[in-house]
């Protein structure tokens, strides 16, 4: 059977979580932590064996290559056994350990999706600021190790934008280009390396990409820090995991932080939540109170100086700066379509606060221009687009793209790789626009 007649495999590998599935589906088949647990004892045996005992050294090396786990299984083995060490192949949105990344893909393909990679085309996602060498390594592993028939490496922000349009189009009866036009600003905030990426007619304006230093992992760290400073007794081994669950379950974005403090102080019993669990080692139950942490966690995107003195530019100002650095004839269209992507943008009322703050910045600039030049500038529409699939928008965009007939024509094939080498994967078509 021709591989192009089978659904393509779509991988969206993020710093915190990876989404795995097949093209044409509305949601990923698996969403798992991007971690690998490796048995260090076999690695130690391989290093300690003398060169004369080559058979023992070889066997230890083979076992080290076989005895590893990924995702939730990796976390479970790491906690329950002292033999395994935890490795994260992706840091700040970039792959920094290709051997571990290859192992993660191996388990994803054979143990989770249970498919033959030689019978499916693959779509992988990549950061908008990753290097050509990174894409080349992706191609080399996919074609050499897994022998895939075809590969396409897509920029995450473009897939997020297409996912937003695809979802909104299902809700709209309007089939005009206004719904499907690929122009907008993608605010992608996951567990690592947030980026603000302007896209015009499907092409990324590379010179206007902005990076924000705080991500979902920083919110988790801040929540944990606040709980510990307030005297809550968190089990050391589970402190970070508890903070992450508190973030995902209870955190929200207030419209005004001062008013929110007053609300909590006036009726603490109404707003304070409790988290109950059992200590993994002793089996003793415990309970912690969750108060200000509920809204102070997400607040670092609007007041980053609360968490780090190294960066003081709020997210709304950075988005405005991104749009202002784009070509002048694209700015109104970009303000009109600011698309959120990533699980960290799913906080309650996050989009409302973001839209109000950006609108305030833009309106002040328009008012200043009117007063200075004595002209009447038309108001600028600011719209932050939100939808229920923000947490896996990149994967969904890849699913939509890989289910089209044009996808197979855009892929690099095994024949192309054998003729030209991994360099065919170095370039990305979405950066080849007029801007």
TrEMBL record:
Transmembrane segments: none annotated. InterPro entries: Actin, ATPase_NBD. The keyword Aminoacyl-tRNA synthetase does not apply. One of its GO terms (molecular function) is actin binding. SMART domains: ACTIN. Keywords: Actin-binding, ATP-binding, Cytoplasm, Cytoskeleton, Nucleotide-binding. It is found in: Cytoplasm, Cytoskeleton. One of its GO terms (biological process) is Arp2/3 complex-mediated actin nucleation. It comes from the Eukaryota. One of its GO terms (cellular component) is Arp2/3 protein complex. Belongs to the actin family. ARP3 subfamily. This is Predicted protein. It comes from Hordeum vulgare subsp. vulgare (Domesticated barley). The gene is LOC123409811.
